[in-house]
Amino acid sequence: MKNSMKLRKLALATFIFMLMILAISHYNGKGGQKNDSTPHINPPEDLGGKGEIGMQLYPTGSRLPDCSHACGPCFPCKRVMVIFKCSLAESCPIVYSSELPHTVVNSFEQFILLMDDDGQIETSLAEIQSFFDSAPPLKDREGIITKVQDFIHKNSSSSGIGKAARVVCVTSGGTTVPLEQRCVRYIDNFSSGRRGAASTEYFLEAGYSVIFLYRSGTCQPYCSTLPDDPFLNCFDASDDTAIQVHPSFAKEVKRAIKENRAAVLGGRLLKLSFTTIFEYLQMLQLIATSMNTLGPSAMFYLAAAVSDFYVPWETMNVHKIQSGSGPLDISLAQVPKMISALRREWAPLTFCISFKLETDSKILLEKARRALKKNKVHLVVANELSTRKEEVIVVAENEEIVVRRNQSKAEAEVERPLVALLVDRHSAYIKHSGS
Ligand SMILES: *[C@@H]1O[C@H](CO)[C@@H](O)[C@H](O)[C@H]1NC(C)=O
Ligand SMILES: *[C@@H]1O[C@H](CO)[C@@H](O)[C@H](O)[C@H]1NC(C)=O
Ligand SMILES: *[C@@H]1O[C@H](CO)[C@@H](O)[C@H](O)[C@H]1NC(C)=O
Ligand SMILES: *[C@@H]1O[C@H](CO)[C@@H](O)[C@H](O)[C@H]1NC(C)=O
Known about the structure:
The protein has helices spanning about 1-30, 95, 110-115, 125-135, 140-155, 195-205, 230-235, 250-265, 275-290, 340-345, 360-375, 415-435, and strands spanning about 50-55, 105, 165-170, 175-180, 185-190, 210-215, 235, 245, 270-275, 300, 310, 335, 350-360, 380-385, 390-395, 400-405. By secondary structure, the chain is of the alpha/beta class. An eight-stranded mixed β-sheet has the order 9-6-3-10-13-14-15-16, sandwiched between helices. Strands 1-2 form a two-stranded antiparallel sheet. Strand 14 (about 380-385) and strand 15 form a beta hairpin. Helix 5 packs parallel to helix 9 (about 275-290) and helix 6 crosses helix 12. The radius of gyration is 25 Å and the shape is globular. Mean pLDDT is about 75; it is low at about 10-120. One 2-acetamido-2-deoxy-beta-D-glucopyranose binds near residues 165 and 266. Pfam families: DFP (PF04127), EPF (PF17181).
């Protein structure tokens, strides 16, 4: 009896020891050249994220083998097998020094879920709730809910004969982060909204109904061929009564007006605009919970550039920050990671595509793969800033597909083959879900 206990303990100790070795070799293998700030949180490949290991792992060390200083409160430290970044100011690893609810995890998979791209702790649903609770209330919330539900209802009931109509929510443009409650200044996130607008056209062409959730003032579907200030540039007021389209823009203006009107009046395009991060996330949540009723025939195409940092509403200056008071010192909190909430809570049945943009192609694919795993989205579209109009890489669980625009046509956009591929994958997903 006693012996078998001992044996079991020994086995457990060996197992943990092996985990540590795996972890160290993994770290050295991948990040060995850079000994510094690049955390590598992938679980050892051999475990393949297969879930339950049958014991509790206590994340404590900043990086093996350097977790000795954490041994105080987390005794016995032998149970530690964690690699992640510890911020410089921290004497004790992040999990222990903060009081997040996730100090205990049961598996590697779960552990990965708790961290974001940079190895920091993932936000819990409670934190997401508190983000929403403290956000300024969405203006005309009821009106937006009604619009979304009417739109979805019309398009799910009109399909008839067992063939569910497809609806995609395309998010587009960047969010702002206000610095004052009565906002004069804000931090913005770069994005023209061109990808979202172009993709919307192709989704409509493919027979989808589209909820276009866009940053106010960014690109609109069917307008990409118009000049910057179409109202002033495309029209001629020749005499007192008549306003005419300038002949050189006649074709484009006609197309924009016709296609847009057909889509909106036909009930196939619903445009909703946001400006701040608070508006965006609240709208996304309510759209997601409505779209979940459509099941697998709904899709999310999350092309918006969402800020990672924000000033919590309650800590924000009410009035305009005065410039006379010297350098500005603002503390930005991390925006809770909403994609995994969307996948896990709001709309688990829908087909979900997220985007990853980087300026460094070397880390792009790795980050896209990690986002795919961590958020459990179905596909991640990886794009590099400098080449994003030419090609993107669609990252799936078992494959990576390079999608290029047709280079023999000057006006061809990469969104055309991209949307075609996604529609294909969505069909397969619907078929698979139904069987
Ligand atoms: C790690 O990098 C720092 C500089 O960033 C250097 O001073 C130090 O010697 C390096 N340590 C190892 C073990 O390579
Ligand atoms: C969406 O609803 C409108 C209005 O009822 C309808 O004309 C349109 O065909 C629907 N679209 C789809 C894809 O079912
Ligand atoms: C802007 O959005 C991108 C994602 O599209 C994100 O990686 C980046 O950190 C954001 N910028 C800020 C300041 O949060
Ligand atoms: C690209 O465009 C050319 C010219 O219009 C066309 O002939 C060709 O079939 C296109 N290629 C693809 C892959 O669509």
